[in-house]
Amino acid sequence: MAPVTSLSDSVHQRLAAALSAALPQAGSADPLLRRSDRADFQANGILALAKKEKANPRELATQVVGNVVSGDVIKDVEVSGPGFLNITVADRAIIENLAARHADGERLGVPLKENAGITVVDYAQPNVAKEMHVGHLRSAVIGDALRGMLDFTGEKTIGRHHIGDWGTQFGMLIQYLFEHPGELAPAADVDGEQAMSNLNRVYKASRALFDADEEFKERARKRVVALQSGDKETLELWQQFVDESKVYFYSVFEKLDMEIRDEEIVGESAYNEGMPETARLLEEKGVAVRSEGALVVFFDEIRGKDDQPVPLIVQKADGGFGYAASDLTAIRNRVFDLKATTLLYVVDVRQSLHFRMVFETARRAGWLSEDVTAHNMGYGTVLGADGKPFKTREGETVRLEDLLDEAVQRAAEVVREKAQDLTEDEIQERAAQVGIGAVKYADLSTSPNRDYKFDLDQMVSLNGDTSVYLQYAYARIQSILRKAGETKAVAHPELELAPAERALGLHLDAFGDTVFEAAAEYAPHKLAAYLYQLASLYTTFYDKCPVLKAETPEQIENRLFLCDVTARTLHRGMGLLGIRTPERL
Ligand code: ARG
Question: What is the pTM of this model?
Answer without folding.
Answer: 0.95
